[in-house]
Amino acid sequence: MKTLKIGMFGFGCVGTGLFEVINKTKHFPAIIEKIVVKNPNKKRIYNNVSLSFDPDFILRDKNIDVVVELINNSDEAFEIVRAAICTGKHVITANKKLLAENLTELIELARQNNVSLLYEGAVAGSIPIIRNLEEYYNNDSLTRIEGIVNGTTNYILTQANKGVSYQQALKTAQEKGFAEAEPTLDVDGFDAKFKLVILLKHAFGINVKPHEIPNIGIRNIKPQDILIAQEKLWRIKLFAKSIKTEKGVIAYVAPHAINNSHSAFYVDDEFNAVIVEAAFADKQLFYGKGAGSYPTASAVLSDISALQLGYKYEYRKSIDSSLFLNQSDSVRVYVGSTHLDTLNSIEFEEVEDLYIGKEYTYRIGLVHFDVLCQIDWNNRKDLSILFLPEENANNHVKLSYEFLEN
Q1: In this structure, which topology does domain 330-401 adopt according to CATH?
Q2: Topology of the domain covering 4-118
Q3: Would you state the pLDDT for residue 396?
Q4: Alpha helices (H) along 113-183
Q5: Out of 73-87, 242-256, 374-388, least confident range
Q6: How far apart are CA 139 and CA 317, in angstroms?
Q7: Residue 134 in contact with residue 318, Cβ under 8 Å?
Q8: Are 268 and 289 contacting, i.e. CB atoms less than 8 angstroms apart?
Q9: Which positions are catalytic?
């Protein structure tokens, strides 16, 4: 078996992990020959590999078989990936933003140049979800895929459930390397949305751009919401969610309140979980570490191994043109606010529970998805929202008044 020669872009957390894993794996049929980095002043530990700051150092080397792209900047990564594919090199990337924004173009480019474009590490770290969607579920009728695909928010919410404040939990997540210094992509649900775009392609064959999927993060979840969730025996998780209906596929990212019957109820800290539901296989849970140097490196390593067998994603579900995104249904939600007037401004189709207190108020019921999409939840400090299980919805109204102003 031919030993693959790898040119790697980026030598940060994941790149360092991959370098260590490959060098510690005995008889692995691949070697990192060259690495391109951006910061010449950063101290790095490496042996028996050539280091450069020029992309052409790898891109013009005809002996390099595979380009592994592991940099943070998605625009720069796109130029590298596109150039590598056009020079006939296989590409492995873990850059979910790059893929979510350019997936259709890159798939076609890889097809034209007869190379593989693999990206298992872009979604849920060490969990092998993409290849399972491509292979295991290829002939099954998928009805739903949802999951915790962002370790940062899951860690913060786990700490919040223990009474730790949002700011303190975020600070600790940053210190542990789970969160970036600028956490917006994580805490506002953008990172999870990028991953959902990729999952939609492999689960249902849908081509969608990130701006077409609503994303609500966890930034504005209040301590009162956490306490209310605990009283109701809920745990709050940020889900990337897609459901196949008769009208099409509904897809969104939002915080959900789940009970202990849910498969992801006990998935805590930086761990990820993806639940796949199919017509014939029922529900299956994929669970593992979703962030960090080694978990992501292990997924990249798996892609390198697959290249040894000439593996390519086939995207066979893409031929089903009957599926499309549809956000026209109603959803069951909990909405909390410090002001009753603010809460009353949201049009509920049905109300099943209303609580009005001196300092906080909330309402539970059905709201049309279009109504929710008109609100910029990530920038509304006076509002918080949790999506609730559809199967527990009911049609009665329950009112609870602790204090009602005249």
Answers
A1: Alpha-Beta Plaits (3.30.70)
A2: Rossmann fold (3.40.50)
A3: 40
A4: 129-134, 151-161, 166-175
A5: 242-256
A6: 9
A7: no
A8: no
A9: 195
